Amino acid sequence: MMPPEHETTSITGIPSNVLLTNRTENISVHAEPPSSVSNLSPCLDRQKPDQQEATPVRLSVLRESLRPITLKFEDVAYTIKLRTNEGSCFSSSEPKLTRTVLNGVSGIARPGELVAMLGPSGSGKTTLLTALAGRLPGKVSGTITYNGQPFSSSIKRKTGFVSQDDVLYPHLTVLETLTFTALLRLPNKLTIAEKIEQAELIIMELGLTRCRNSIVGGPLFRGLSGGERKRVSIGQEMLVNPSLLLLDEPTSGLDSTTAQRIVSTLRGLARGRRTVITTIHQPSSRLYWMFDKVVVLSEGCLIYSGSAGRVMEYFGSIGYVPGFNFMNPADFLLDLANGVAPDTKHDDQQEFQGRSDHHDDQNSTKQSLISSYRKNLYPALKDEIHQSFRDPFCSASGLSPSRSCENQWTTSWWTQFNVLLKRGLKERKHESYSGLRIFQVMSVSILSGLLWWHSDTSHIQDQVGLLFFFSIFWGFFPLFNAIFAFPQERPMLIRERSSGMYRLSSYYFARMAGDLPMELVLPTIFVTITYWMGGLKPSILTFTLTLLIVLFNVLVSQGLGLALGAILMEVKQATTLASVTMLVFLLAGGYYIQHMPPFITWLKYISFSHYCYKLLVGVQYSKNEHYECGLGMHCRVFDSPAIKLMDIDNMGWDVAALAVMFVGYRLLAYFALRMGRPQ
Ligand SMILES: Nc1ncnc2c1ncn2[C@@H]1O[C@H](COP(=O)(O)OP(=O)(O)OP(=O)(O)O)[C@@H](O)[C@H]1O
Separation of 297 CA from ligand 1 center, angstroms? Predict the structure, then answer.
C-alpha cells in the first residue's frame, strides 16, 4: 500500500497560492512550503512564544496537520448485551443475550491516506468508526493505537468526528456556527481576526458562501438543506485542524456532484498529512477511485483491508471475478460483503447472478471470504501493525511521547467562557426574550395586582397570601424554565465535549451567566407591578428587600431545575419530578398548614419556598406592628394566626439555608453533568 504523494494544492484542489494570497492580503502570515513530516517542529503547541514567532505555523492551520497520526487497530472486537425482559414481571430464565458487532477487525491508516469503510447496513461500520474515535461506550477488546500510544485527551483534541446525524445549534447562522467553533477550537496563538478568517475560508472551501447567513434550522423550522448541514458539520471538524478525521457517511443523501465535492475535500485534507477515514454507502466508481484504502466489513468481520486499487486483483486471486468488465468496484465489494458472489459457473454468459434467496450459499460465501482474508491478507497486515512506531515529532525533541506531546486546552478558560456566553445568548435570544414569556409574566402580575388591589393590614391573611404567592410563583416559573437547559443542549454538549472543545466548567458558568439577565428581569418587573398594586408597605427599603428575596428565591429554584435536568437528562421525567417537588414545597411552605404532624415537619426545612415566604413576611412587618383584628381591636401582626408559628426572628438562618441550597443545587447540577459525561 503506497502512501499517497504530497500535493501542493489546497484542501479542495484550489492551488495553495490562491489561499496564500488571500491570507497574506489581510494579515501578516508566514507561508510554509509543504514539508516532509520530519521537517516539522515537534509538539508545536508546546513551544515558547518566541519560538512560535519564528515558526511559520499560521498559514498551515488548514493546510497541513501539525502532528500527523498513524492509526493502527488490531483484533478489535465489540460485543453488546441485547435487552431482554429481565427485571420485568414476565422475565424468563433465559441467559443474557449478547451480540458480537465487531469481530477481530484490524487495519492501519497513515497520514496522507483517505480510507473508506464499506459494508452492508448493520455490518459494524459506525461501531468501528466510533471505536477508533475513542467514543464507544463499554469495553472494546483488541488494541487501537495512535502513533503507538493509546487514546488520550491529546489525541481527542486532534481528532475530528463527524457523526451521521448533524448536531448543530438551530438558531445560529452558518457563519456564526463556524465562527464560534473557530474561536473555541483554534489555538490562542491565532488572533480573533485570524480565527474568523479561517471560518470564512472553510465556508469558501465547502461551497457554503451562498448560505453563509442562513440559519441552520431545526425540526420545527426550515433552515439549511441536508447537504448544507452536512458540510457545516464537516467544516466544524475541519476547524480543529484535525490530524485524524473520522466521518460517518458524510455523503449519504447527497447528489453525486455534492458527494464528489465532499470526497475531494476529504482527499485534499488527507493530502495535508491527515489521516482521514470515512464510512460510505454505495459510492460511485468515480468516488471509489478517490480513496487510497478500503476496509470492507461483513457482519462485523473483515473481508478486505488494504489498497483500494488492488481490490479486484486480490478478489480475482481467490476466485471472485465480476461478471461485467466495467463493474463499479464498490458494488462488487458490497455484493461480496452480502455474500452474493459472481456466478462463476456461468462465466460464458458474462452475467452476474445474485443468489439473494440462498441464505446458505450467502453464508458460505461470507465464511470463505473471511477465511481467505485471514489466510492471505491478515499475516502481512499484522506484521505491518507490529512494526514499531517512531514518532518523528517527539523523538526529534527528545521528549517522551506519552507525556510531553500531551497538550492542554487550545484556548484559555476565559476565552471559552466568553465565546460560549456569546454563543448561548445568540442561540437562546428568541427563547429568553420571547413575547409569550413576557406576556405570561405581565398578565399574571397585573391580574394578581388587581386581585390584591390596595390590600391593607386589616386583611392580614390576604396580604400574607400575596407574599406566599410571590414565593410560590417565583419557585415554579424558573424551575420549569431551567429544567430544559441541559436536556435540550445534551446532543451538542456530548459532541463538543467528546472532542475536547472546552472545559465543562466554562460551559457551565457561561450557561448560568447567559440565563441570568432574563431570569432576573422578569421577576423584577413582576414584583414592581404587583407590590405597588397590591398595597404592600409603601417603603422603598421594604420593596427593595422584597425584590432581593424574590430574586434570591429565583436563583435557588433555577438551581434545582438545572440539577433535576442534569441528573435525569430527560425533560418528561424531570418535569414530572419537578411538579411533585414543587407541590410538596407548596404544601410544606407554611401557608396552608401551620400544624404539621411532628414526624413530617422536616419537609418544610427542605422547601426553599418556606424560607422565602418567612423572609418576605419578616421584612414586610416589624415586630411591634399592629393590625385591626376586630372591631376597634388591634393585635400584634406577629401574633396573627397566619404568622404566629413561623418563627420570624431567625431570618439569618433563612438566608443561610437559601444560600446553602443556592450553592448545593448548582454543585449537584455540575457534578451530574460531569458524571454523565460521555467518553
Ligand atoms: N448499542 C447498541 N445496541 C444494540 N444494537 C447495537 C448497538 N450498537 C450497534 N448495534 C447493532 O450493531 C450492528 C452494527 O451497527 P452499526 O451502526 O455499526 O452498523 P453500520 O454498518 O454503520 O450500519 P449503517 O450503514 O446502516 O449505518 C447493527 O445491527 C446494530 O443494530
Answer: 12
